[in-house]
Specification:
Layout lengths: L1 E5 L4 H18 L11 E5 L5 H9 L7 E4 L14 E4 L14
Parallel strand pairs: 1-2
Antiparallel strand pairs: 3-4
């Protein structure tokens, strides 16, 4: 459960980081990965992000990449960036937005 989430700037990072952590835990415990379920409370888009959200929604969708984790890593604290790779990752150009405070 996440108490509050900014859908444009925060949620994509939260999903990616928790999904990676879930995969890493499953990897070192020799489990498969099912679904990541996230529940949010105050889920919002700030008014000063409306144009950016509309731009994002107008873009096409790429195929999902595949996550590769080094099979030799058996301790979650031993992962380094070189042990993690997104294979086939594509992205559109960044969309800049001010942090709402």
């Amino acid at each position: 459960y996440q108490r509050s989430v900014d859908c444009f700037l925060g949620l994509p990072f939260n999903i990616a980081s928790y999904a990676l952590l879930t995969h890493m835990i499953a990897h070192v415990c020799n489990f498969g990965v099912g679904e990541l379920t996230i529940s949010t409370g105050d889920t919002h888009i700030y008014l000063n992000h409306i144009d950016q959200v509309n731009e994002q929604l107008s873009r096409g969708i790429f195929n999902s990449p595949t996550l590769w984790l080094n099979p030799e890593v058996k301790d979650i604290e031993k992962f380094t960036m070189s042990d993690i790779e997104l294979v086939g990752y594509q992205s559109h150009a960044a969309i800049k937005a001010e942090m709402a405070v």
